[in-house]
Amino acid sequence: MRTRRNSAVHALLVAGLVAAGILCPAVARAQTYPSKPVRIVVGFPPGGASDVAARAVGGKLAERLGQPVVIDNRAGAASNIGSELVARSPADGYTILFGTISLAINPSLYPKLAYDPLKDFAPVTQISSSPFLLVVNPDTPYRSVADLIAAAQAAPKPLLYATAGNGSGSHLFMEYFAASAGIRLAAVPYKGAAPAMNDVLAGTVPLTFDNIITTLPLYKAGRLRALAVSTSTRAAAAPDIPTLQELGVAGYDANAWFGLLAPTGTPADIVEKLYAETAESLKDPQVRERLLSLGSEPVGSTPAAFGRFYRAEVEKWGKVVRAANVRIE
User: Fold this and answer.
1) Are the C-beta atoms of 318 and 108 separated by less than 8 Å?
2) How many domains is the chain built from?
């Protein structure tokens, strides 16, 4: 009760200073924001990696902001439903998006989106980065990336690989690999990552490229053979697995990421405050450990740096989608 009374007195004091011309509006806004709960929209169902990560960060962010942070799951259409909701929300810092790599891929996959992924969002910060693992069934003869490339080059038909569906990360990461390595591979799409992985484990399809969050436990249990990680540096969660760049696939660098984005037009001081408090939240040992346990490495980049990264991601995956002629069925 005392905290609320003090906050109310503080808000009245700031308002009085603004009225008197002593305090500029931007400073006043930064002083009083947030004055009510902040909503983080997650475009995927509860329990998934993005939801777990959002809740891990959101809990600490609520402590730092002094207001509840509500996680709002708006699943559907590869996160387009949640993204559209945030894009159409007031630009006041009270509704923000927990974005994923899907936000960078969707502009190239969907010819008619109800929002513009580049124009309708103001980047706040990149939360984390997660590599994918290139994995094969242990009974295959592919013991290295070199083995896989040699087999693909010698095969009369493209080698098959499992994906979580057309346009999914497992699909586009593998198409990016095939193009970078100069080999032919053919996608076998499934309705989700789980059935795709089940067929790789059963040996029905020999390989896949999937998030470290789901593949690392299977690799450690000996049920998969990991050939490489997708990022340009080795993953902290799996330092024994080499990168594709190390293995001769020049320039290959891809990761699944989480980040916060606000509606375009959100005042710069509010974006800056959200960034600063989120970056500090990511330094918390419990938050870091939770993200690392998922295979996600904390980042906490500035709005400008995240903006450059995000635009580069849209451009990169657009090229992959067009080169592979990926279509949504």
Assistant:
1) yes
2) 2
